[in-house]
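Colleagues,

For the teaching module next term, I've prepared a clean inverse folding example: a structure given as C-alpha cells, and then the sequence designed for it. I'd like students to try predicting residues themselves before seeing the answer, so please don't circulate the second half yet.
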C-alpha cells in the first residue's frame, strides 16, 4: 500500500509506526474471511481492509476523525483474527490502537456516550469501585427489561444490567499483596497478575492458580501496587489512563525483579496477557522502555507457566467432555493454540473444539457493553457451535469470554481451575456437587 505521509508527520513515532504497518498491507482481502463483523454485516468498511483504508485517509490527511471512521472502528472487536489470517504480516493491533487514540483525541462523541465511557474507565479497572457498582447493578437488574427504546444507549443499559451477576463471590484474601511460599523445595519464583474485574467476578481463578503453582514448587508473589493491566482503557483510546496503570505494574514488578528476582510473570486472563506482552512496544519511547521490555519478556500465560514448570495430574481421569473455547487474545494475540488443549488432555479430559473456533464470542473487553447487538449475535453463534458438541462443560482462559458464554446451561470453567482440580485441588464450584 502506498502512503503519502510528510517528513514532518513521520517524525511522530506513532505515525511512523502506522506508516510502516500500512505499507505492509497488499489489499489481498484474506482478512475479510475471518473478520467477525464482516461475516455478520457484510460491509467492506466493517472488515480489517476497509478499516485500514479509513484509518489511512484519516491519518494521512492529519484530520479529526469523523462519524464514519468512529462508527466502523468502534465496531472492530480487536479480536486480531485478521492478524492470524494475514499473509503479509500486517500488525493491525498497533494500527487500530493508534486509530482509537486519534479518535479519542479529535472526535467529540455525543454526551451520553462520553459519560458511559468515562464511567467504565473509572469503574472497571478498580476492584473496590467495581464491586460496589455490581451490587447496585444487581439490585437494578430486574428493571432492565423495562428500559424502553431500540437506540444504542438503551441497548447498552440493558446489556450492562443483564451482564451484572445476581450475586458476587466473597472477597478472597489470597489475592492480596503477599508471598505464597512454594511447597517443598522452591524451584521457581514468579509474580502473578491478580487483575481488576476478574478479581471481583471470579476470585476462584486466582486461587486455583496460586494453589497449583505452589504445589509445583513455585513461589508466587503478589506485588504491592499492581492493578489493572491497562487493556480496558487502552482499547477505548484513553492513552494516559492506560499508561498510568501499566506504569504502576512496571514499578511493582520492577522492584521484585531487582530484588529477589522473578522467573516469570504469570497471567491467567489472556486479554491482560496480550497487553502486558506488548508493554515493550507501548513504552518504547518512554523512560521505562528497558523495564517494560523486560516485563514483556517475563510475561507468560498460565498455561505456558504450567508447561514450563512441569504440570502433572495426580487424580484419575474425570470422564468429562470439555468444549475448549480459545479466547481471541490467546490464539490470535499470543499465538497460543495447542498448549491449553494439550494440558487438559494430559489431565484426563476429553477435549473438543467447536466449529468456527477462530471467531470471537463477542466479549472483547467492553465490546459486549458498547456494541451489544453484534456481541449478542456472536455469542449466539458461538454457543450454537459449542452446543453441537454436547459437552459437559466449557473451558476458557479469559474472564471476559467466561462471562459472555455463561448463562446458557453449560458450566463455564477456567482452564486453570480444571488443571488444579486434577492435580489435587478442589473440584470447581461451577461444576456443582
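(Answer key — instructors only)
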Amino acid at each position: 500500500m502506498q502512503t503519502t505521509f510528510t517528513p514532518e508527520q513521520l517524525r511522530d513515532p506513532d505515525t511512523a509506526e502506522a506508516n510502516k504497518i500500512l505499507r505492509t498491507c497488499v489489499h489481498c482481502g484474506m482478512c475479510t474471511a475471518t473478520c467477525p463483523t464482516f461475516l455478520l454485516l457484510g460491509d467492506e468498511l466493517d472488515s480489517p481492509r476497509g478499516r485500514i483504508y479509513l484509518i489511512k485517509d484519516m491519518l494521512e490527511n492529519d484530520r479529526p476523525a469523523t462519524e464514519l471512521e468512529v462508527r466502523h472502528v468502534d465496531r472492530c472487536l480487536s479480536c486480531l483474527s485478521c492478524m492470524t489470517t494475514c499473509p503479509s504480516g500486517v500488525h493491525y493491533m498497533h494500527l487500530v490502537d493508534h486509530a482509537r487514540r486519534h479518535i479519542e483525541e479529535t472526535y467529540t462523541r455525543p454526551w451520553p456516550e462520553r459519560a458511559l465511557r468515562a464511567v467504565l474507565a473509572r469503574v472497571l479497572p478498580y476492584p473496590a469501585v467495581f464491586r460496589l457498582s455490581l451490587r447496585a447493578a444487581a439490585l437494578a437488574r430486574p428493571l432492565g427489561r423495562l428500559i424502553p427504546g431500540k437506540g444504542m444507549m438503551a441497548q447498552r443499559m440493558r446489556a450492562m444490567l443483564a451482564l451484572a451477576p445476581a450475586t458476587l463471590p466473597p472477597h478472597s484474601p489470597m489475592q492480596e499483596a503477599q508471598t505464597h511460599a512454594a511447597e517443598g523445595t522452591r524451584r521457581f519464583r514468579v509474580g502473578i497478575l491478580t487483575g481488576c474485574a476478574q478479581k471481583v467476578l471470579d476470585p476462584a481463578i486466582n486461587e486455583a492458580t496460586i494453589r497449583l503453582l505452589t504445589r509445583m514448587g513455585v513461589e508466587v508473589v503478589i506485588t504491592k501496587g499492581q492493578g489493572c493491566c491497562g487493556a480496558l482503557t487502552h482499547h477505548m483510546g484513553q492513552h494516559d489512563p492506560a499508561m498510568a496503570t501499566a506504569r504502576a505494574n512496571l514499578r511493582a514488578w520492577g522492584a521484585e525483579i531487582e530484588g529477589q528476582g522473578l522467573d516469570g510473570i504469570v497471567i491467567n486472563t489472556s486479554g491482560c496477557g496480550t497487553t502486558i506482552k506488548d508493554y515493550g512496544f507501548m513504552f518504547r519511547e518512554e523512560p521505562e522502555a528497558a523495564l517494560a521490555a523486560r516485563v514483556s519478556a517475563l510475561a507468560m500465560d498460565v498455561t505456558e507457566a504450567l508447561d514450563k514448570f512441569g504440570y502433572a495430574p495426580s487424580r484419575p481421569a474425570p470422564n468429562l467432555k470439555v468444549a475448549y473455547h480459545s479466547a481471541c487474545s490467546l490464539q490470535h494475540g499470543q499465538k497460543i493454540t495447542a498448549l491449553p488443549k494439550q494440558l487438559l488432555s494430559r489431565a484426563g479430559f476429553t477435549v473438543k473444539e467447536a466449529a468456527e473456533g477462530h471467531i470471537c464470542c463477542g466479549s472483547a473487553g467492553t465490546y459486549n457493553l458498547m456494541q451489544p447487538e453484534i456481541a449478542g449475535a456472536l455469542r449466539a453463534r458461538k454457543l450454537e457451535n459449542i452446543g453441537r458438541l454436547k459437552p459437559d462443560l466449557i473451558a476458557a482462559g479469559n474472564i471476559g469470554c467466561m462471562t459472555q458464554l455463561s448463562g446458557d446451561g453449560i458450566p463455564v470453567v477456567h482452564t486453570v481451575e480444571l488443571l488444579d482440580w486434577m492435580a489435587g485441588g478442589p473440584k470447581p464450584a461451577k461444576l456443582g456437587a
